[in-house]
Design goal:
disordered N terminus, globular, 15 helices
Length: 320
């Protein structure tokens, strides 16, 4: 790690945009150990096998028609940073013209670049896997979704949790493939999330908050996380109680500084989405079965509202 180079990249941010994306990538990677990607052919095939098994098992249990990317990406932390710099660039750049112009654009660019690089550097040290539906991707004939695994983080976390690496790797594969199942079942979902993100970010940049768009975005992401938890619990093909306890503890663990950073990055909201969404979908599935729970992906109107997330019977009365 080179903290001096990281700071230098941020303060040297330039260009005409609200963020210098090249500087974000350089600063985030300079402050982050990339980790090793020295895997044998058998270890690489282990990831692919877990993904295929998860796809087949989730199709069978969930009754959801979907596929996974033809290839998966085994990444180190620097690879993950670059992939997500591109994702955030695609999200923010189209909205840049709608932002109020700051009085000191150069200083504002430095602050924005520093905030983004800090966030990505922190997340790159913690993210285990990611299903990316490539929101806002250009229609250039390229892939429409990707599946990443940050191998150094998975290996380190398995050691920290004192669980066997192949078993933990399989757990992560199942979790990420559940997200592929959701987006495969709901072709409308990427556009729905994109529009709500645009409205929310644009209003925030103007000093306001589009409460309706934010509420719809939060409810949709709660559904995404909660349904994934339901499928994970029903489809994972091994005993998992110990993994669940350890993963839940990890989501809420860490020292005071780590907890502060998580709070500033909104990771507490994500944990709440996991728990609230899981409670909702488990209640629905227990009452009416997995087929009824899957109705949430038939059309946008079937997404639960904020109130219905806390009252599954209201959702069942409306949708089922």
């Amino acid at each position: 790690m080179d903290l001096f180079r990281s700071v230098d990249a941020v303060v040297s941010a330039s260009g005409d945009g609200v963020v210098d994306w090249g500087a974000v990538s350089e600063a985030a990677k300079a402050s982050t150990d990339p980790g090793s990607l020295e895997l044998s052919a058998a270890e690489r095939e282990g990831y692919a096998t877990d993904v295929r098994d998860a796809r087949d098992r989730i199709r069978e249990v969930g009754g959801v028609a979907f596929d996974v990317p033809e290839t998966i990406s085994l990444q180190n932390r620097h690879h993950w940073i670059d992939a997500n710099v591109d994702t955030f660039r695609r999200l923010i750049e189209p909205m840049a013209e709608e932002f109020d112009q700051p009085l000191f654009p150069g200083a504002s660019r430095v602050v924005n670049t520093g905030s983004m690089s800090f966030s990505l550097a922190f997340l790159a040290r913690h993210v285990l896997g990611q299903y990316d539906p490539l929101l806002l991707a250009e229609a250039d004939g390229g892939p429409t979704h990707e599946l990443y695994f940050v191998h150094p983080n998975i290996e380190r976390t398995a050691e920290e949790l004192n669980v066997e690496f192949p078993r933990f790797r399989r757990w992560i594969a199942f979790h990420e493939v559940t997200h592929a199942a959701e987006f495969g079942a709901a072709e409308w979902l990427p556009e729905y999330l994109e529009s709500r993100m645009r409205d929310t970010v644009t209003q925030l940049a103007s000093g306001g908050l589009n409460r309706e768009a934010f509420s719809e975005l939060d409810a949709a992401m709660t559904a995404v996380e909660g349904y994934a938890e339901l499928l994970m619990d029903r489809a994972f093909d091994e005993e998992y109680d110990d993994l669940r306890r350890k993963i839940d503890a990890r989501r809420s663990g860490g020292g005071p500084v780590d907890q502060l950073i998580r709070r500033l990055l909104g990771l507490g909201i994500k944990r709440r989405q996991y728990e609230r969404g899981a409670d909702f979908f488990h209640a629905v599935a227990d009452a009416e079965g997995l087929d009824t729970a899957a109705k949430v992906w038939e059309r946008p109107e079937n997404l639960p509202t904020d109130d219905e997330l806390d009252d599954p019977e209201r959702w069942l009365a409306r949708v089922a």
